[in-house]
Amino acid sequence: MHIHFCLCEDGLMTTRPGPPRQKRSQAAMERILEAAQQLIAEEGIAGFTLNAVAARAGVAVGTVYQRFANKEDLLVSAQQRWLDEVVRTQREQFLPAAAQQPDFVRAVSLYAEQLAALFRGHACLVREFVVYAAAIPALREAAQQRLDQLAQERCDVFMALPDRPPHITRGHILLVLRAVQSLLEWRVATSPDVAEAIAMPWDTLADDIPKLVTAYLGHDT
């Protein structure tokens, strides 16, 4: 804790506690990561620099280097922050809704629809992560680990639904969830012109994902 000295009206010096250093450090970290995500979405990873992040976050460049060893380290942390948002949003929006779904296949479709909305809402940011994952192993490994964890957590929910058809196993569900994830990664990595040319705009994709889930899980496999 920092101690700040102040002059009282009677001329005596007294002390008061300053804001905890940890809270200020956390706030600075949040500003840095938020700035990093904004710049990645706007400029792309190729044009993304630690100096630009510091300027956008309103902190000294040295503050960024105190927390991140290099550009790759910051990229992985920025990606992790977005993935944490995906997990948090899914927990807040999906779990209550899934619990109210009487139909097992519809519950799985709901998960896929919500994940698609998250990818679409951050398409520019996610595109950079997906495209550069091939060149930056740490980026790819961190994303895959977090998304696999999310899929496993959701699979636990689906396996516990009372109306899950007995022929649908954990393996079937994970296969569908990973197929949806791969489809969304492909979509964000595809330029809008190409996507339109092959009739795969976001609205079409949003309509087709539940059909994919229903086609696979809605029948004996």
From TrEMBL:
It comes from Streptomyces kasugaensis. Residues 49-68 bind DNA. SUPFAM superfamilies: Homeodomain-like. PROSITE patterns: HTH_TETR_1, HTH_TETR_2. Keywords: DNA-binding, Transcription, Transcription regulation. It comes from the Bacteria. Residues 26-86 form the HTH tetR-type domain. GO terms for molecular function: DNA-binding transcription factor activity; transcription cis-regulatory region binding. InterPro entries: DNA-bd_HTH_TetR-type_CS, Homeodomain-like_sf, HTH-type_TetR-like_transc_reg, HTH_TetR. This is TetR/AcrR family transcriptional regulator. Transmembrane segments: none annotated.
